[in-house]
Amino acid sequence: MIVILVTGVLDPAFGGSTFANTAIALNDPSVTPEGDTARVVTLVNRVANLKVVKAGPANAAAGEAVQYTIRVRNDGPTSILGAVFSDVVPASLLNVTWSAMASGSVSNVTPASGNGNNISLTADLPVDDASYLDITVNGIVSPAMVNGSTISNTATISLPPASNATDPNPADNASTVITIVDNDPVVRIAKSGPAVVNVGDTIRYRVVISNGGSGNITGALITDPVPPEIGVFSWTATGTGAATVTGATAGATNNLSTTADIPVGAANTIVLNISGVVLESAGTTVVNTASVVAGSNKESSVTTSVNRSTDISIQKSGPQAVNAGEVVNYAIVIRNHGKVGSNDMLIEDNIPATITNVTWTVEAFGNASVLDTNRVDSSGNNISLPAKIGPGRANNYIIIQVRGVVNPSAGGTAIINTASVTGNDVIDYNLPNNQSSVLTGVGALTGMIVRKTGPTTALAGNDISYDIVVINNGPSDATDVSINDVVPAEIENVKWEVSVTGQPL
């Protein structure tokens, strides 16, 4: 017996509802029969996890410019044509303009720019890490805004109308930034950052310090102790207009501290840009506060929700048809499509009793393990395995190969075999792919052979005897077998008896 395990990735842009795969085995031309074929028809589900993340200022001064940056992406696994983006900007922001920039294979962005508070566009979103859509929104905070009032701005991404795809995690289809308005004419600080991030994402903060008073500011102390859940890899401090940085201008640590001089004037600001990575140790939220001390003490904080959810999947494959008594093989593949690993995962497969003599082998690859090892060989119908798997589907996965024999008496039935996986220490946003079933129809293939022996010569009036042997070479059991022997009329006083060897049904 030769077992070939074929794995691959279905084209994310495939739009059909089913596809078929046929295997062909050919004998040598001198041998009959010529060969055999086996065909599997697979039902295709279209699932696309669309995401939007909006970043904007936590604080803004009345009458001054604000900017929002929005990133839209498709975490798949299905590509989407005509995804719909929307952002209804509050009326408290004036002179709104916006533009969209596609990266990677994102295409058909319509329209790509505009003005006004009602932003709506469509785009084709493929599935790969390098493909995303960035929308930049600019506006002016109304000078009439009251000190301490807020501006709430929400961006959304959705599947196109009448789409046959589903989004497994609607919670990340919207992202909101709330900005507190500062209308106090003294030193001002405004920090902006994303409302939502995923573990492993790059996170960027922007801090702007300005002088809203009537006198120059000298020696302003600016600090930003970035929480340890963020691994800062760079920060810079620069001045615009006549403002100057008198302390450190760059660094790569979480403890940012510098000093600056900020003369009077709207064009004179100090701008900090901070970049880091969200570490796996992050909790559900990260609060980052920047402060400036220049006579008075002003702070600006950004609270970012951390998406610790992931998508662990299991896929089971096996034959759609088999004969009773034959060997049956299953392959099970477990992957993690998210950015958060699971250290408390359970893989289960209760193989039906119709399948006997079951043996199985488990192999773990990359940052994955089963029973804290990378290979397990065992037997039995009940598979229950604690496992671990790191983030990322490409390099971290587990393969289970199951082999058994279908009960020879099971002809005319069907076998349903279901495998499941559970991540007990993570939130799995796509639960439907935590189970996978294979339905196999069981046929009957018997090899009935009859052998009859008797004398080649006989004397009239003497006894004569015959032996009849009936054998089933399988692989399936034969039931209701009819054995007939019409003895010639020339043989008189016929008697017969039956004996059984082996296992009768």
Structural account:
There is one protein chain. This protein has about 500 residues and is mainly β. It has strands at about 20-25, 35-45, 50-55, 60, 65-75, 80-90, 95-105, 105-110, 115, 120-125, 130-140, 150-160, 175-180, 185-195, 195-200, 200-210, 215-225, 230-240, 245, 250, 255-260, 270-280, 285-295, 295-305, 310, 310-315, 320-325, 325-335, 340-350, 355-365, 370, 375-380, 380-390, 395-405, 415-425, 425-430, 435-445, 450-455, 465-470.
Helix and strand arrangement:
Elements: E1 18-26, E2 35-43, E3 48-57, E4 59-61, E5 65-77, E6 80-88, E7 93-103, E8 107-110, E9 113-115, E10 118-125, E11 132-141, E12 150-158, E13 174-182, E14 187-194, E15 196-198, E16 202-211, E17 217-225, E18 230-240, E19 244-245, E20 250-251, E21 255-262, E22 269-278, E23 285-294, E24 296-307, E25 309-310, E26 312-317, E27 321-323, E28 327-336, E29 342-350, E30 355-365, E31 368-370, E32 375-379, E33 382-389, E34 397-406, E35 414-423, E36 427-428, E37 435-443, E38 448-453, E39 467-472
Parallel strand pairs: 4-13, 15-24, 25-36, 27-37
Antiparallel strand pairs: 1-2, 3-5, 3-14, 5-11, 6-10, 6-12, 7-9, 7-11, 8-10, 12-13, 14-16, 16-22, 17-21, 17-23, 18-20, 18-22, 19-21, 23-24, 26-28, 28-34, 29-33, 29-35, 30-32, 30-34, 31-33, 35-37, 38-39
